[in-house]
């Protein structure tokens, strides 16, 4: 009996979602294809009927995860009644919740260091998606892209450092300082 129409696309999307979650949590190099496929509820034998290689999956997972993050941040902004709405996004992005929920968080701070060692294809996709994220942040804040780059860099750097340290007070302080400085960047 043949699969219903759209089955292959649905399975591919499930694999991409599983990969995005795994990469956000464990990075690229520590995640195997069998691990991703198991997370998708599939056997690893079917991987190559959907993707040429792991690099192609990494690129698609980055695209998916950044789209997911932009949608989430837009929802946060839409729920904010005060202006500027970017402040609600900064508060969410630099929150203990976002810091601690790596499997659902922004993939940019999770993978940036590894992406620099990835294939040109992955780096190209990551670059385009980072530019899209910076444009989103810039538009939401009503600032020029160069200032949006500085704002988003501050947010990502603060989150990376807050996730890295093993001192909870220092981690919280990094988030608080990052929020304060990011909000100042919007008003400069």
Notable features of this structure?
mainly alpha, 9 helices, 73% helix, DNA-binding, DNA-bd_HTH_TetR-type_CS
Question: What percent strand?
Answer: under 5%
Question: What class, by secondary structure content?
Answer: mainly alpha
Total strands: the figure is 0
Please mark out the parts with pLDDT under 50 across 5 or more consecutive residues, or reply none. Answer: none
Instruction: Indicate the radius of gyration in whole angstroms.
Output: 18 Å
Our count of helices gives: 9
Order of helices and strands: HHHHHHHHH
Main sheet attributes: strand count, strand direction, barrel closure: none
Per the principal axes of the C-alpha atoms, what is the gross shape?
globular
Could you tell me the mean pLDDT? 91
> Roughly how much helix do the residues carry, as a percent range?
over 70%
* Cα distance spanning the termini: 63 Å
Please provide a written account of the structure.
It comes from Paenibacillus odorifer. Residues 32-51 bind DNA. This is TetR family transcriptional regulator. Residues 9-69 form the HTH tetR-type domain. The chain is an all-alpha fold and 188 residues long. 73% of the residues lie in helices and 0% in strands. It is built from nine helices and no strands. The protein has helices spanning 7-26, 33-39, 54-79, 86-93, 96-100, 107-115, 120-141, 145-164, 168-187. The protein starts with 6 loop residues before the first helix and ends with a helix. The model has no long low-confidence stretch (mean pLDDT 91).
């Amino acid at each position: 009996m043949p699969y219903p129409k759209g089955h292959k696309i649905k399975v591919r999307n499930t694999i991409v979602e599983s990969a995005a979650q795994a990469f956000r949590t464990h990075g690229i190099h520590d995640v195997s294809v069998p691990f991703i496929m198991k997370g998708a509820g599939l056997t690893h034998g079917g991987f190559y009927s959907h993707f040429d290689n792991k690099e192609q999956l990494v690129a698609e997972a980055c695209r998916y995860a950044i789209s997911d993050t932009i949608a989430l941040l837009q929802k946060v902004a839409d729920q904010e009644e005060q202006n500027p709405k970017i402040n609600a996004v900064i508060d969410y992005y630099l929150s203990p919740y976002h810091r601690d929920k790596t499997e659902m968080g922004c993939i940019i701070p999770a993978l940036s260091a590894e992406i620099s060692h990835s294939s040109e294809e992955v780096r190209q996709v990551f670059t385009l998606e980072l530019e899209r994220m910076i444009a989103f942040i810039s538009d939401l804040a009503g600032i020029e892209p160069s200032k949006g780059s500085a704002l988003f860099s501050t947010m990502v750097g603060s989150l990376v450092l807050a996730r890295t340290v093993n001192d909870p007070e220092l981690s919280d302080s990094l988030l608080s300082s990052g929020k304060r400085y990011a909000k100042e960047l919007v008003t400069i």
